[in-house]
Amino acid sequence: MSEKRVVKYNPQEIEPKWQERWAQDRLYEVHEDAPHPKWYELTMFPYTSGDLHIGHWYAMAPSDVHARFMRMKGYNVLHPMGFDAFGLPAENAAISRGIHPFTWTMGNIERMRGQLKSLGAIYDWNREVETCLPDYYKWTQWFFLKLYEAGLAYRAKAPVNWCPKCQTVLANEQVVGEGLCERCETPVTRKDLEQWFFRITKYAEELLDFSHIEWPERIKTMQKNWIGKSEGVEIAFGLEGEEEIRVFTTRPDTIYGVTFIVLAPEHPLVERLTTAEHREEVARYIEWARRQSEIERLSTEREKSGVFIGSYAINKLTGERVPIWIADYVLMSYGTGAVMAVPAHDQRDFEFAKRFVLPIKVVIAPPDWSGEDLAEAYIKPGTMVNSAQFDGLPSEQGMDAITDFIEAMGYGERKKTYRLRDWLISRQRYWGAPIPMVYCDRCGLVPVPEKDLPVLLPEDAEFRPTGESPLKYCESFVNATCPKCDAMARRETDTMDTFMCSSWYFMRYASPGYKEAPFDVEKLKYWLPVDQYTGGAEHATMHLLYTRFFIKALRDMGIVDFDEPFIRLFNQGVIVIERQKMSKSRGRVITPDAYVAEMGADAVRAYLMFIGPWDQGGEWDDRGIKGIARWLNRVWSLVLDSYDAEFLKAIAKPSKEAVTKTLRHITHRTIKKVTEDMERFRFNTMIAALMEFTNYLGKVGEGKSVEPPAWQEAIDTLLLLLAPTAPHLAEELWTRTGHPYSIHNQAFPKWDKGLAAEEEFTLVIQVNGRLRDRVRVPISITEEEAKELALGRERTKAYLKDGEIARIIYVPRRLVNIVVK
Q: What is the model's pTM?
């Protein structure tokens, strides 16, 4: 290359210049009348807890790169940004720092917005939403009223998870680890309160249908497990008189082995069925159980506990009286809150029976069983014994046979149950959307009329050190007029779970300033559903599940005309420091600002994508980002040297045809590689390909023996491929080399199949050393790609389904051998 040194790359000057130019030119504003097909790409908006750290950028920078890529591919791309602005941290800040939550939150938003703008993303800031502003939460309240009208919002007294430090109710999903509050890690207790719920259970079956969305299997599995569908039988056990206890079981084949019944301590029958001599002991046990977390109660490691309540139930199939106990391992929230205990064939019941010396009756015989006592519960299939007319049947057949008999006798019926509970949305906090309901002594529970929305948060609320909600002590808020009879009424003082706000924010982006409704229907039809959603997998059973329910409920009300909020989902991994997750509370964070100031946003963006596979995350290393900065400097010099008059004159001499042919091949091969990696979010290998291309061009340039058109094509291609990743650098170089503004309005390069074609060889695929398949592959295939290809072949899968992969052997340019146990 030329020894003449051009202007030094200075991102501190270049990046603000282009950010200002793009904003002035409204380059990234999007409109519904564009001639291109729409593409709505969204990353989960940040919570306004303070300054952004590098973990936030790890979610946002790669998603912006992909959105830019889609824009250059010819799509009309909406890639908006906003702020999830209600929540507990703001209220805690008000208590600890003496600052109003609104002031604290809006100050955070101002700083975060500035940080996000320094990223150089294509956010259309005209579409920004902030969930804590009245013009947003007015519509959050409107949606609540619609759910209430549809019978999907209701109030009920229920045992709830209570954090004594935060002084608020927690949803089941917000109790983590060993029964701790996810916010402050205080042990969670149980408490009976009147609460507001959304009837998400109505949609349990539909939420198990993922056929219309392209989501990671991991997320689908997490949601399936959380919904927890079970198919079995609900069976009635008799009580004195005509009453009965109904239990749900997935093992009707074991009903002849029932030796006791266990009720949840909260079961409504407990009080009436407890005899006088057992009442005191039962009351003590119930009080003790209420203080246990759900995780503690379900633990298989701790010793079983329980109390006999003095009453008996009748097994209708045997006529036997069986004692009724209460035990904390039975939850009111699953099935009917009652369990038929079969200790011979359920390990939990077995341990309970052993401790309290209850009978253990074998009704499913293990192979070669001759009547001896069991050392542990036998839970596998076997032969039915001690089961009346069903003796001798294989237990799998006995399932249906006994179920048919139970239904024929009217003792029970086939049924499906779900682990999923209704969504508890009540929060005893100030900083959230007020629930738009009032309580009238004459009229009862009355919704606030839509014309009176929003119900505003009072500015004069007093924040107490106890953490209690200030709303219930704020007379100007609590005192209201009944919308029906004009009598004095009391306003609901609970606020909504912040997940309610995030269940519809993606729709508000379609028309954020619209005043007549939560969204402009025509604009919503244009943009929704979201084509590509990105964010953390930790939201699988909360935000991602709640949002799916929310859209299905709105669809059934005729408010929207689509079934799912997000067609495609990609979950990024986590950036760690010294192998530990970033945590503000533990002072373990890296802020992007200093790195942007020193090396530029483009270097930070590129390093975050190079650090590792985006879905796996990686370890932050200052040496790594410095390497990326050096690479961008090489790109700067390479491109400007390539347009230097002396260099262009030098390469005008007769060139070597072979060099030009190879250059064009590698150029088009790189286009193909970068495009395919972009489409699959393989950003780390995409960056590696661009680095390799840069190094190759440097060597070709030094030789000065290539046809100018091919060289020009290669350099321009490098800039176009780099533009989504390093938008400022690419824009500056594109302009300096005489191209029309803006590079971001150019089409993404397309490869020529003939020029990109690789030399090929036949890859042999073996399973345990035996030939199972052959496939032609490019000679440049990597080990990872070869293994992935081998595992994905249909002919290979047939030999893998019954075994466990022990290892995969790769012999370069020859074979892949999958070793299966």
A: 0.86
